[in-house]
Amino acid sequence: MDAVEKCNDAFLADMLDYLNAPADGTVVTLRHAGGVRGKKLLDAIRAGTGGGIEVVCAELKKDAEKYDFAQAEFASAGRKVTPGALRAITSAFSDDLAELAAACQQLLSDSAEQITEATVDKYYGGRVETNAFQVADAAIAGRHGEALVTMRHALASGADPVPMVAAFASKIRTMAKISGAQGGSGQLAQQFGLAPWQVDRARRDLQGWTEDGLGRCIELLAETDADVKGGGRDPVFALERMIRVVSARGRD
Questions:
Q1: pTM
Q2: φ and ψ at 63, to 5 degrees?
Q3: 34, 82, 221, 252: most buried, per Cβ within 10 A?
Q4: Cα–Cα distance measured from residue 214 to residue 250, given in angstroms and rounded to the nearest whole number
Q5: What is the pLDDT of residues 158-198, one digit of tens each?
Q6: What are phi and psi of 114, to 5 degrees?
Q7: DSSP secondary structure code for residue 57 in this structure
């Protein structure tokens, strides 16, 4: 039963009655997203009425938490997975944990001894977010032509401009956090809520960048985000402008 936090009084009464006489050999799962609605029912389940138990599912908001979640999925199955594959699959399904879990299970069904970036690309190469991060990686590294070609291919494959801008924002925001920060990868990862590999990647990405360039790109990202969400007349032009400026490391 989904959305128990929105249930009506009749449902609450029925479930409380059911807990007093549950059906043999049956498991009923109730999903409650929070709030005070249905508190009496939740309290009964927490008290063990009808054999009820509570499974707390904390929301994973940080990229590092999602990376650790995916890593645990493969570890629990005893399968080897490369850091690059974990980064790719986490980036591709960062917005939906259920989809991320399902994608991990799909990869686990592959017969390869080790799951690599090539394995991820085999199954999810057309994923919108993956293409978006490929565009962002090329632009941030200064490869303007490659970024444009990848962007146009992604759009032709059905990608939406909004998550593409989000991919740029995610990477440049991480770069801004790490810029000028002192300390080891593990220390900074803990400080900023990142994974150590994200710190190392941001440091590599920062080569050739200046604080002024980062500031210019952050301002442009805000403008581009508004343009692709209806504020501008041509989302593709907005993306091309963003790629040009980011490829020039904010100097254009």
A1: 0.55
A2: -60, -35
A3: 221
A4: 6
A5: 778 988 899 899 899 999 999 989 999 889 988 988 888 88
A6: -130, 135
A7: -
